[in-house]
Amino acid sequence: MTNGGSINSSTHLLDLLDEPIPGVGTYDDFHTIDWVREKCKDRERHRRINSKKKESAWEMTKSLYDAWSGWLVVTLTGLASGALAGLIDIAADWMTDLKEGICLSALWYNHEQCCWGSNETTFEERDKCPQWKTWAELIIGQAEGPGSYIMNYIMYIFWALSFAFLAVSLVKVFAPYACGSGIPEIKTILSGFIIRGYLGKWTLMIKTITLVLAVASGLSLGKEGPLVHVACCCGNIFSYLFPKYSTNEAKKREVLSAASAAGVSVAFGAPIGGVLFSLEEVSYYFPLKTLWRSFFAALVAAFVLRSINPFGNSRLVLFYVEYHTPWYLFELFPFILLGVFGGLWGAFFIRANIAWCRRRKSTKFGKYPVLEVIIVAAITAVIAFPNPYTRLNTSELIKELFTDCGPLESSSLCDYRNDMNASKIVDDIPDRPAGLGVYSAIWQLCLALIFKIIMTVFTFGIKVPSGLFIPSMAIGAIAGRIVGIAVEQLAYYHHDWFIFKEWCEVGADCITPGLYAMVGAAACLGGVTRMTVSLVVIVFELTGGLEYIVPLMAAVMTSKWVGDAFGREGIYEAHIRLNGYPFLDAKEEFTHTTLAADVMRPRRNDPPLAVLTQDNMTVDDIENMINETSYNGFPVIMSKESQRLVGFALRRDLTIAIESARKKQEGIVGSSRVCFAQHTPSLPAESPRPLKLRSILDMSPFTVTDHTPMEIVVDIFRKLGLRQCLVTHNGIVLGIITKKNILEHLEQLKQHVEPLQSSVYPFQTPPWHYNKKRYPPSYGPDGKPRPRFNNVQLNPIDEDREETEEEVHLLNSTTL
Fold first, then answer.
1. What are the helix (H) ranges across 363-468?
2. Other CB atoms closer than 10 Å to residue 66's CB: what's the count?
3. Which sign, positive or negative, has the C-alpha torsion 149, 151, 153, 155?
4. DSSP character for 427?
5. Element (H, E) at 724
6. What is the pLDDT of residues 723-759, one digit of tens each?
7. Which of 527, 587, 530, 469 is nearest to 182 (CA)?
């Protein structure tokens, strides 16, 4: 691998003019940024500011403002993220309770707040008070009986459908980008892809409103993933207030990395977990200063949310729990089993959801997103209402499953047969035999588990804001609670077994079913997303206990190993591949032995590579080439005879520069000579004025030789974030490799990972087999360069002659 110029040398990437051309250096929609180019622009801007800061007090002030702008933008992002998260939590709780009834004393109170000040509640029926009226009481005047149940059932379905219809309508009409989780697109954007409007103000406003509606509708989705999208929208909007970030796409992505950390911080009340989530899961480029700013943004966002206190429990999340019972070595076995379940669930969900989303894209059903949301919401509401565990808000369900059974718990999960000889109430209640309420709750939880598994597959990906964290955690929490109760009863009735008698005495509090629910939730979320370190820290911050880190690590790693056995992609990577986003996953390994010449364009039957010469083309020639091709850039060579590489010019920069020159410079016409060289060649006196475009020329494009292994090329693209790389042979341009070419090559190799003698081709070489090179040498048999016509012209290989070692033929005219 070679590079036309050192990045850190005094030679700049762009030979900037005193008056740069407006628009040059920007990017079109759905294009990839050039990280190297953006970093060089930022270094040039930084040098310019430092050179002027001693000239005057104003320049010193501008320098300080530039230095502190990074901290200012993440502070504003954290403040906005925390405030919006608090608003979403409060509104979602109120609208969720609106499906069941309304508070007559204060319409803006949810069910719990309505009964806080009532003196007529009882311990057994603490959720009932005169101020709160169900819809059956308001409409037909009955609080009990079949008529009341049916009316509440109808109103529950009515409100669920109304919220879902309003959410999908707002998304479809005002902000189509507001649907889904947003994390796959955030990962793609952070890798350098441009999606205009995805992080805009309209998307932010509609996503905030429709997220509340989608959660309140009772669909099997969560708000934690979309909160990352909301936070990134805030970071993107605030970055436009600071020129340092508004004019540099690479610097802007540092702000977005910090914003994603703030989003997870307010979603789970886990600032440290948010930083690790940004580092492990979504960020593509994460320098040390971004780590500090991400931590600060997460801290500010968590502080704002804590000040708002949306749940009234002085915590950042609804399902914060604390356990006091230690775990024992034997319990690692059921914890690992929960990890296996989480991995199996993750593998099943990814395959089923991707298959359904692919079917949605390829059939007429995908053309009616409103109808799909209405159908899914109707099925969810009809099935969810009869079961109290599916009727609950998913966050409240997780809270109930996480909570340990204490003396003040009235849930059916805590309906144990009490010891009548107990003389006092203590915090650590010993293990007891399960009562009828527990067995009834287990059956209801089993039905809820099946319901959640099926509906989550069909819900994730519909055209409303839909997160995956909470549904996955709910599925794992249900499975974990069931396993925890089973182990608890096993220890109670068989305490004399050798696995129990050493540490579980009669009358002791040995097993905590809520802990199993927490481990199961982490395992299922890890199986779906393949998160490890950040997930353990997030759940650890939820519980506030250090001693449960080992069970969490064991379950999460087991779920990842089991899930990876069925496929190494997490759900977000699978959706990125499904949508065709240009994302090079750094977690994938490239183990094939192909060369750069096997991947570069042009291929054998393709048109020749379009190139520019540095001083013998006219404006009309370049405009014709731009109009006749769709390439994003063109290599610039010295001449048709020399064919040596000079640099690389982007299509957008050429278009903008020519349009600007026609408007601002006199004498620029279609026959004007275009010069990319440092010195203009001598022209006849009657010639029109030449157009100098050296300022837009990349003088140090990255190049590799045709024999460079693709393993190295892929590594270069991943670590440097390149858009394209030129392939040369002794300084002569042979072709070009773009990010899209690499992604296509990786996809083709994935489809043909079998050995050469496979079951498909048991007696012949498969058509995708190739040896070393797919192109003839740059020099012909006479030792002279092969001829080219204003570009790289690869002569066809004579099919009648014997194939050389350096060449290859694809059998049966099959091309990759």
1. 369-384, 388-391, 394-402, 436-459
2. 17
3. negative
4. S
5. strand 724-729
6. 889 999 888 888 999 988 898 888 888 776 533 333 3
7. 469
Peptide bond into 762 cis (omega under 30): no
- The C-alpha atoms of residue 318 and residue 323 are separated, in whole angstroms, by 16
Q: b vs e for 211-243, b when ≥16 Cβ sit within 10 Å of the residue's Cβ?
A: bbbbbbbbbbbbbbbbbbbbbbbbbbbbbeebe
pLDDT surpassing 60 at residue 778: no
**What band does 545 get if pLDDT is binned at 50, 70 and 90?**
low
CA nearest to 522, candidates 230, 329, 319, 324: 319
β-pairing, 633-637 vs 645-650, is antiparallel
Give the angle 791-795-796 at the CA atoms, nearest 5°: 140
Cβ neighbours of residue 192 under 8 Å, at least 6 residues apart?
A: 32, 33, 35, 249, 250, 253, 284, 721
The predicted model scores a pTM of 0.84
- Rounded to whole angstroms, how far apart are CA atoms 314 and 507? 34
Q: What is the DSSP letter of 130?
A: T
Distance between CA atoms of residues 721 and 724, nearest Å:
9
| The two structure tokens encoding residue 110 | 């949810």
Quick one: which of 770, 728, 764, 727 has its CA closest to 748? 770
- Cα–Cα distance measured from residue 150 to residue 158, given in angstroms and rounded to the nearest whole number: 12
Q: Which amino acid is at 301?
A: A
- Using CA atoms, how far residue 331 sits from 31, 334, 374, 519, 563, in Å, is 51, 6, 44, 11, 22
Q: If we measure between CA atoms, which residue out of 478, 522, 219, 132 comes closest to residue 342?
A: 522
Cα 539 to Cα 105, 265, 512, distances in angstroms: 38, 12, 16
Reply yes or no on whether the pLDDT at 498 is more than 80: no
1, pLDDT greater than 60: no
Residue 738 carries which DSSP code?
Answer: E
What distance, in Å, lies between the first and last C-alpha atoms of the chain? Answer: 24
Q: What's the CA gap between 476 and 345, in Å, rounded?
A: 9
